[in-house]
Write a structure and sequence with these properties.
heterodimer, A: about 110 residues, five-stranded mixed sheet, two-stranded parallel sheet, B: about 400 residues, alpha+beta, six-stranded antiparallel sheet, 10 helices, elongated, disordered C terminus
Chain lengths: ~110, ~400
């Protein structure tokens, strides 16, 4: 799985696609860590093209959230599909990874 | 020729039956290409048989060890090279020489197993006599070492899976009035899913309770299984002294460092049942997949708590329900839920298939796990089923052995 990356200056949007699982999660997590280390700690993960997420995908998002917050930033998720929303809700992770409907909404106070 | 049994041959027998061949095909193909030989194979030598577990130009399968060349190779420590098998009295009459594919040339390097003994050989065969140069012999030995490493990794993984399997409860809990069964099917040799059950004394002094647990550590494989073992053991320890809510809080505190350091989290569903009254305390730490079901319908036993290992500490506390005598408690892992499109509506349509009162808990977990596996579950799959067995005076635990399996 590949992912798109757009640096908007104030924040970076990452957009994985397809299955966000054990195979796809580590590269995205590594990229998030690199971005955070480079001082870019405001991140939006645009999930509109992800049709399946598993616990490894969730783990990458939570891990990314943790690194971003440690550097005073945040990681937000946007445009999640039904399966992603169902899994977030099931695990109650929507409490810490609030799903925004669009990337624009995720940016509201940045 | 009858060979005495040995550790190496026992090991080869076990490996021949567990080995996923794709793992070795690459090295075998490499050997075939490097030596430009029509046939290359990895043969394991068991008690009486040779098992061709990976090959090019030769069928995989089993044949009598005495009909093979590799059974001689495993008895030595260096490359065995035979320029022309027809001219070697040890091999001139074996089926592959006198009949198709009528091989002439053989070179094989013995491959050692974990026991330190040779368990098989990587060999190349040609249809015309030839000889290997010194460099080629070294290269064959290198490829053999590569395979040895692959086999060692596989054996380690198998052993880790066995250890994890042996940590599952295998016998009925020592408490009257319940029937229980659980089953895990890891996606790999070991995994992050587990279930557990054990009897605890209620901290209020009200008697014995059956605690049941289903845990799911993020990820798959050996790394996830290590964390799962820790969470299991810590929860077991804390559960002896306190109620389920507090036990989960303490388990989170105790495992926090290890979960965070490894960037893992664990969902947990923990229930504590009084089989006499049906009173059920439970904690749902981000698991979400426990239901009580009967012909009258079903209800979810879920809470809003986070899994363990999240950036913020939660305040897990128990909730209560009552398991009626005609009701079934079912807990599954997300590997099951994934094949149901992560939808409770979809799950509900399947519910009737496990609610037949004639089914034992063991049959129920088998149905759930087999269903998930047959629908191409990619994750670890686990199911746990519990019901009270007091009805009609029938203590089913004494009739129905508890069930705990991995990789059936």
């Amino acid at each position: 799985m590949s992912f798109e990356e757009v640096d908007e200056g104030t924040h970076v949007v990452l957009a994985p696609e397809g299955k966000f699982n054990l195979v796809a999660a580590p590269p995205l997590k590594t990229r998030i860590d690199d971005l955070v280390a480079a001082g870019k700690a405001r991140l939006v993960v645009d999930l509109h093209a992800v049709d399946f997420i598993d616990s490894s995908g969730l783990g990458a998002l939570v891990g990314g959230l943790k690194s971003a917050r440690q550097q005073g930033g945040d990681l937000r998720i946007a445009a999640a599909g039904d399966q992603v929303l169902a899994v977030l809700k099931l695990t109650n992770l929507d409490r810490i990874l609030v799903p925004y409907a669009t990337v624009e909404e995720a940016l509201h106070d940045w | 020729m009858v060979m005495p049994p040995s550790t190496g041959r026992q090991e080869a027998e076990a490996l021949a039956r567990s080995v996923p061949a794709e793992r070795y095909n690459r090295v075998v193909r490499l050997a075939q290409a490097i030596f430009g030989a029509p046939i290359a194979a990895l043969n394991l030598i068991g008690n009486d048989s040779q098992f061709t577990v990976a090959s090019v130009g030769f069928p995989k399968g089993e044949m009598p060890a005495a009909d093979s060349v590799c059974h001689i190779t495993v008895q030595q420590d260096q490359v065995l090279e035979v320029r022309d098998l027809r001219e070697d009295e040890r091999f001139a009459a074996i089926p592959a020489v006198i009949g198709p594919p009528r091989v002439r040339f053989y070179a094989g390097v013995p491959v050692r197993g974990q026991s330190g003994q040779n368990i098989g050989a990587l060999c190349i065969l040609d249809l015309a006599p030839r000889t290997l140069g010194r460099q080629q012999r070294e290269m064959l030995a290198d490829l053999g070492a590569l395979l040895e490493h692959e086999l060692a990794v596989q054996e380690e993984m198998d052993l880790a899976g066995q250890v994890q399997q042996l940590m599952l409860p295998t016998s009925a809990p020592d408490i009257a009035g319940v029937e229980i069964a659980g089953r895990v099917q890891p996606a790999r040799e070991a995994g992050g899913d587990y279930f557990d059950w054990f009897v605890v004394n209620d901290p209020d002094g009200a008697g014995k309770r059956l605690q049941v647990v289903l845990g799911d550590v993020m990820g798959k494989g050996l790394a996830a299984s290590l964390i799962a073992s820790e969470v299991r053991a810590v929860l077991r320890g804390h559960s002896r002294y306190t109620d389920v809510g507090d036990a989960v809080v303490r388990t989170s505190t105790t495992t926090r460092h290890d979960l965070e350091a490894n960037n893992r989290f664990s969902t947990l569903w923990v229930g504590r049942l009084d089989p006499i009254t049906g009173a059920l305390d439970y904690v749902d730490a981000g698991h979400g997949l426990a239901i009580i079901a009967s012909q009258r319908g079903y209800r979810r036993l879920f809470q809003e708590y986070l899994p363990l290992g999240m950036p913020i500490e939660d305040t897990w506390a128990r909730a209560s329900d009552v398991l009626a005598e005609d009701e079934l408690l079912v807990v599954v892992s997300d590997g099951v839920f994934d094949v149901l499109d992560d939808s409770f509506e979809e799950a509900e349509t399947r519910l009737q298939t496990i609610l037949d009162p004639g089914l034992s808990c063991r049959q129920i977990v088998d149905r759930i796990v087999d269903f998930a596996v047959s629908h191409a579950a990619t994750d670890d799959v686990t199911a746990l089923a519990v019901r009270r067995a007091a009805r009609a005076g029938l203590d089913r635990t004494s009739q129905e052995p508890a069930h705990a399996t991995t990789r059936s």
